């Protein structure tokens, strides 16, 4: 695998600078396994970008609906006594009990193929280090609907190393939700 501690002195563009529509070409023309894995990671994130846009619109609409419900409740709960005393109207804050859903996620065949190959390659790296890429594999397996394998990968991460991303992935595994949840890990 790639040694990140080595300084990159290459004049080649970084994968983050390559337009998304060219990432599939990078996978096909990768000179070695490490470059292919990097290109597959980049393509995985790029392919989920369309869903992120759908997700943002979905969340904005749902949040607006939550706010309308809240506003209606506030209007009903403002007694004449509160108005007479000119008590300030509370400002909206999303309640923990507010509805929170995600739109359905249906990856294209090419996404499924990329995630499957990427997960196979990352799993192979665990022969030397059983914890290697455990969080990435958990997310890949979860997006593929392979929830038991995702849970197994999460269990490889020591409790003191688990953060918010691990917690969210675990919640989505429990809910059997395949929608991409992360932007950066």
Oligomer: single chain
The radius of gyration is 22 Å
Order of helices and strands: HHHHHHHH
C-alpha termini separation: 19 Å
Integer average pLDDT: 84
The largest pleated sheet is described as: none
Poorly predicted runs of 5 or more residues: 1-8
Query: How many strand segments?
Result: 0
Structural class: mainly alpha
Beta-strand fraction estimate: under 5%
Helix-residue proportion: 55-70%
Shape: elongated
Number of helices: 8
Report on the structure:
By secondary structure, the protein is mostly helical. It contains eight helices and no strands. It has helices at residues 23-28, 33-47, 49-77, 80-84, 109-125, 134-143, 147-155, 164-175. It is elongated. The model is unreliable at 1-8 (pLDDT under 50).
Indicate the topology.
Layout: H1 23-28, H2 33-47, H3 49-77, H4 80-84, H5 109-125, H6 134-143, H7 147-155, H8 164-175
Helix pairs in contact: 2-5, 5-6, 6-7, 6-8, 7-8
What brief labels describe this structure?
disordered N terminus; mainly alpha; 185 residues; single chain
Question: Gist?
Answer:
The chain is mainly α.
């Amino acid at each position: 695998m790639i040694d990140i501690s080595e300084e990159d002195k290459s004049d080649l563009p970084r994968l983050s600078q390559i337009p998304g529509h060219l990432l599939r070409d990078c996978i096909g023309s990768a000179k070695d396994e490490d470059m292919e894995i990097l290109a597959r990671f980049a393509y995985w994130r790029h392919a989920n970008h369309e869903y992120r846009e759908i997700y943002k619109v979905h969340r904005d609409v749902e949040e607006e609906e939550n706010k309308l419900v809240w506003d209606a409740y506030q209007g009903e709960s403002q007694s004449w006594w509160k108005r007479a005393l000119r008590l300030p109207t509370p400002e909206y804050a999303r309640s923990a009990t507010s509805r929170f859903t995600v739109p359905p996620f249906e990856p294209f065949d090419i996404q499924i193929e990329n995630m499957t190959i990427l997960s196979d390659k990352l799993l192979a790296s665990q022969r030397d280090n059983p914890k290697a890429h455990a969080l990435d594999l958990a997310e890949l397996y979860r997006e593929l609907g392979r929830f038991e394998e995702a849970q197994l990968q999460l269990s490889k991460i020591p409790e003191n190393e688990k953060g918010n991303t691990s917690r969210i992935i675990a919640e989505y595994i429990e809910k059997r939700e395949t929608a991409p949840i992360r932007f950066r890990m």
